[in-house]
Specification:
five-stranded antiparallel β-sheet; 10 helices; single chain; about 375 residues; Phosphorylase Kinase, domain 1
Length: about 375
């Protein structure tokens, strides 16, 4: 549990001046353990972020940190001459031994960042302006990393967005029906099989490989508390090679519906077109310069693919007896699947309008 870590000892393992004062759990993340650590320095109390990397999820934490080190160093070079540049990129603090991670006595991997003051994250979108800023930030992030020199980044979660393999996993779950739930999900299984072509829609489009974030929720963008402008992208564990449209599609999936991911009242689940427009305009403000015509043509398709992919992942997990996603009620993963599929239906109903918008803005 998070309270069992000797955070003071971990904090002192990093190159942080001053005297360690305290550390408290910080943020709303569910994977890594995150703390805000306070050190007393000559100028007063200074805050830092300490994170224990969940090595159950990220089985190669050293590769995760090597990716993050390269990515943050590359972005730092690009923002060095910008005003307030310290707040426009995450900045790793080396450990005493010079590496950008520390391994504690229990074998846990830790990292430290400078704390970015006067900024916050939002777990759910509150306005079209926020959606625009977040999309602009993720587009800018991709643009900054489009010039990252070789070698290729590590695949920290191999085949993370390989939708054909996700579909194959789903069909195996259907065939085995390990939890004897197939009859309860008959409608959803038929819905997914009828849309099998979505599984290959992006991979067959001959799109270029990019450096992508792969977790483009709103709460992974730091927003300036005073101006409301996006400062920088955070939570870089899943940064790795991928398609730029994986990120855009996941923005649509996680931002445009007004409901939670496990909403029971499906009449409330819908793709809100004004939010989609804000995402398109924000993303293309930053990304239009480097995206190929093929990438721009597949923006709407990516929204369908990622909603479909996440839906079949939830459905497959439900059929297998919930081995992967933590559940809090009977049928929780089936509820999550239904939410994704209802969102996908809403996108399909508005697809022609969405395509016209992209055509007007992107071409």
């Amino acid at each position: 549990m998070i309270q069992q870590h000797d955070v003071g000892s971990v904090a002192r393992a990093f190159q942080i001046r001053g005297k360690f004062a305290s550390a408290t759990p910080y943020g709303s993340g569910h994977i890594n353990d995150t703390y805000c650590a306070v050190f007393h320095q000559e100028a007063g109390a200074v805050r830092f972020i300490l994170q224990r990397i969940n090595h159950i999820i990220f089985k190669r934490p050293v590769e995760v940190m090597e990716n993050i080190q390269r990515v943050t160093a590359h972005i730092t070079q690009q923002v060095v001459d910008e005003p307030d540049c310290e707040r426009h990129v995450l900045r790793l603090i080396p450990a005493i031994d010079g590496r950008v991670w520390h391994v504690d006595r229990e074998g846990n991997y830790w990292r430290a960042y400078r704390f970015i003051e006067n900024a916050r994250t939002y777990d759910s979108v509150e306005s079209m302006e926020q959606a625009f800023e977040a999309a602009k930030a993720f587009g800018h992030f991709q643009k900054q990393l489009a010039t990252l020199p070789a070698p290729r980044l590590h695949d920290t979660i191999p085949d993370f967005h390989h939708t054909p393999k996700r579909f194959a996993d789903f069909t195996r779950a259907v065939d085995s029906d390990a939890a004897n739930r197939g009859i309860l999900a008959k409608t959803e299984i038929e819905f997914a099989i009828a849309r099998q072509s979505l599984a290959t829609a992006l991979l067959q489009a001959n799109l270029p490989e990019r450096v992508t974030h792969n977790d483009t929720k709103l709460n992974n963008v730091l927003i300036d508390s005073a101006t409301g402008e996006a400062l920088c992208v955070i939570d870089l564990d899943t940064v790795m090679p991928g398609l730029a449209l994986y990120d855009f599609g996941d923005m649509v999936r996680t931002t445009t519906s007004p409901t939670k991911e496990d909403e029971l009242d499906l009449t409330l689940v819908r793709m809100q077109f004004p939010m989609f427009e804000a995402l398109v305009r924000g993303y293309l403000t930053s990304a239009a310069e480097f995206l190929t015509p093929g990438e721009r043509r597949h923006l709407v398709c990516s929204a369908k693919v990622i909603a479909f992919e996440q839906g079949i992942r939830f459905l497959g997990d439900y059929l297998a007896g919930d081995p992967y996603y933590r559940v809090h009620r009977e049928g929780h993963n089936l509820d999550r699947c239904r939410t994704q599929f209802k969102l996908l239906q809403s996108i399909e109903l508005q697809e022609e309008l969405m395509e016209r918008l992209v055509q007007d803005i992107a071409f």
